[in-house]
Amino acid sequence: MNSNNTATKWITGSVRVVLWLLFAVNLIYLLASYPRVTPWHYGSLLHLNGFTILIWTMVSFFSALISSYSKNYLKGFKYEARFSVLCLSFTLSVMVFVLANHLGLMLIAWLLSGVFMSQLIGIDRRWGEARQASKLALKYFATGTAFLGAGILLLATYAETTTLTGIIGQVDQLPSPVVLIAALCIITAAIIQSSMYPFHRWLLSAMTAPTPSSALMHAGFVNGSGILLTLFAVVLFTSDTLIILFVIGGLTAVIAQFAKLLQVNVKQKLACSTIAQMGFMIMQCGLGFFNAAVVHLVLHGFYKAYLFLSAGEEVGKSNPKANPYIRIKPLQAIVVLIFGLLGAWLFTFLTGKHIGLNSGLFLTLIVAITVGQATYNIVKEKSLSYTQKLVLPTVLFIVGISAYALMYNGMTLLMADVPMAVIHAPLTGVEIGFGIVFFIGFFIMKLGIYRKYPWLFVKLMNLTQPDPKTVVMYKSKTS
């Protein structure tokens, strides 16, 4: 027993040191090279640029942080050493994926990241539900990999090249049907990994994963779809399939936000929240703002890692309470509207965007709604004075939007070598129509109108149930 404990401590300690060293090296290199990371190639196999280092820094930080957290959380857990090894393996697979230029290596790394994550979901092999959740997740990930493989194989065959840079350079010369089919395959792979509807079941069924595994999954793994779509942005633009991402992302964001309000389990709430946030990220990709999507996935990683790692504390301090109803007074509505518009103006000013009839208009409107919602949460607070209700929103939106704009501009510079990281596409009738539907659905949710329709409640509850085999099949079996 003592020898096993010693080996476990040595493995987990070594992995922790390696992960923190990886993060330190990546961060130092990123800061030293900023804003222009010199591209580096290793034949046709590897390609490193600013985007590569950015993702490396992010994923190594989250892995190192979660590994350190697990030191106490998983202490005495039979599979603690296995968790550490899988955590390191997952990190390296993601790093190889964004470094790969050869399509075969990229596909292998994508598959391995899914395999390692499925193992983390079912890490407790003694638990029947965990084994089923792992199998279900792996089935989804393998399906996504098959679609990705089909898409890049089709492109490679017609372009007669096995490299990502080669395909990007020739994609506008390939037959339109070929590019369209390949783009649809890549989109399918992305929405499966980010658990978009109707592929959301694997994430809702992954509650058997210990909290550190869930944190790594929600902060890093599901974000991989944003990385994939960014790498193939040229293919998506050439095939004119961005509108598909916009619609799928928007529908998922609204449905998942509705579903989140119905959940009573903390981890299920967080799962629905992740699905909704991935929907917003996919929407940004659909608008042509892949740089904004990358900013979103980084911020979501920080936010969701914190929420999962503090989930136990949240449960301990929570008390049942009635759902809040939004009753906004006329004066409050005016204040919310003013601050929302000011927030949108500040965002366009700091990011250099101009409000016009292009895809950037939706991004600006989302910022305005976010600022307006934060303002409402402040002005409705009875414990604050009138002066505080005017000062706090001003301070918060100036600081918040300034920080976001700083990150947005910084990451845009790092992504200068990524083709079509920012596409200011003109608005289409489909985008305008769906945008109206999206915003109507958003306000129906926020105003609580959905509570008047029991059928909608039942539909959403059924839609967000995990696979039965991951919940109730093995209660009397643990071997």
Automatic annotation (TrEMBL):
Transmembrane segments: 17-34, 46-69, 81-99, 136-158, 178-199, 220-237, 243-262, 331-350, 356-378, 390-411, 423-445
N-terminal signal peptide: none
A Pfam family: Proton_antipo_M
Keyword Glycoprotein tagged: no
Location in the cell: Endomembrane system; Membrane
InterPro entries, alphabetized: ND/Mrp_TM, NU5C-like
Keywords: Membrane, Transmembrane, Transmembrane helix
Topology of the protein relative to the lipid bilayer: Multi-pass membrane protein
Top-level lineage group: Bacteria
The UniProt record lists the keyword Transmembrane helix: yes
Domain NADH:quinone oxidoreductase/Mrp antiporter transmembrane: 100-316
Protein name: Proton-conducting transporter membrane subunit
Organism per entry: Gaetbulibacter aestuarii
